[in-house]
Design goal:
Distance between the termini: 20 Å
Order of helices and strands: HHHH
Oligomer: single chain
Strand content: under 5%
Low-confidence stretches: none
Number of strands: 0
Helix content: 55-70%
Number of helices: 4
Length: 84
């Protein structure tokens, strides 16, 4: 399967939307889900979690959470109902 190309700006926008629209107390889980969903793309293009988090306007400390999601991406599949 060929990976779709996303610019860093597209990823920033997607993460910001996912974070801003997450239910209360589920923002961090949504950062993990984002990392799982887009982990292959992020790794393939050598994007850094810190640059994605910073450009999305999210607290810098959350780059560790995005890194966790990216690492999980090779082990985890997202259930269809949570893959928006």
């Amino acid at each position: 399967m060929e990976l779709k190309y996303f610019t860093i700006e597209e990823l920033n926008s997607k993460l910001k939307d996912k974070y801003d629209n997450a239910p209360e107390k589920e923002q961090v889980a949504n950062i993990h889900l984002f990392g799982i969903k887009y982990g292959e793309v992020i790794k393939k293009h050598n994007y850094k979690a810190t640059q994605i988090i910073r450009a999305a306007g999210i607290k810098k400390s959350f780059s560790a959470e995005l890194s966790k999601g990216i690492k999980l991406s090779k082990f985890v599949n997202i259930k269809k109902e949570y893959d928006s």
